[in-house]
Design goal:
- There is one protein chain.
- The chain is α/β, with parallel strands linked by helices.
- The protein has a single domain (5-200), classed as 2-enoyl-CoA Hydratase, Chain A, domain 1 (Alpha-Beta Complex).
- The protein contains ten helices and eight strands.
- The protein has helices spanning 29-44, 66-71, 75-94, 110-117, 144-161, 169-175, 185-200, 204-214, 221-236, 239-249, and strands at 5-11, 14-20, 50-55, 99-103, 107-108, 120-124, 129-130, 180-182.
- Strands 1-2-3-4-6-8 form a six-stranded mixed sheet, sandwiched between helices. A two-stranded parallel ribbon has the order 5-7.
- A hairpin with a 2-residue loop joins strand 1 (5-11) and strand 2.
- Helix 1 (29-44) packs parallel to helix 3 (75-94), helix 3 runs parallel beside helix 4 and helix 3 (75-94) packs antiparallel against helix 9 (221-236).
- The longest helix has 20 residues, at 75-94.
- The radius of gyration is 17 Å and the shape is globular.
Amino acid sequence: MSQAFVRLEKSGGIGTITFFHPSSNAMPGHLLKQLSGVISQAGADTTIKVIVLQSEGRTFCAGASFDELISLKDMDSATSFFMGFANVILAMRQVPKFVIAKVQGKAVGGGVGLIAAADYAMATDLAAVKLSELSIGIGPYVIAPAVRRKIGTAAFSELTINATTWHTAFWGREKGLFAKVFDNLEILNDEVELLACRLVKYDENATKLLKQELWRGTEHWPQLLNEQAQISAKLVLQDFTKNILNSLKK
């Protein structure tokens, strides 16, 4: 595989959204925009009862595109950049259907935010997670509400402060990021399909209302995530952060 894509496949009431980028699924802005659009599309499709979010490759998601990050020059472009994952998270929150994240490998930064924004996440034991933003002079502000909502402030603090440390999939299960962790991808695939097929049979109104209940208290997120994106934008334009990013590029 060499070409980036976002793909929606439908079968038996299950909408499977697959994303891929050759740089370990580090997502550029245009691909994130496409992903948020496809999630919304699946949410509006009456033939889809449940959404499965997955990626191809060994890594689930390496966060936002580093190449785009180091190219940022002004507040408008920087804010737009950091809104990339925010818009995907908001789309996952807004669709009236459960989103199941199938996580086959490591996740960094925004990738952790995608997992946290899913209504239910299952993973293999290779799905370690890391929030490395602080180590390059910024912070995981955009994904903070989603991650904190899922694992709590103490675990979120552990992830953010230990910015260079990988936390295992079993740590993620213990903290609530993952509902289940399996020994291999084959078992993960089977378990996700089993759950999705079960959810397809449930009453749509009950599912929709339960999703609303699970996300109660997040009505202010569109404004909040925009404000968080502006914080990250200011930090990424600082000389301190630019110097670190330029040193990493060499």
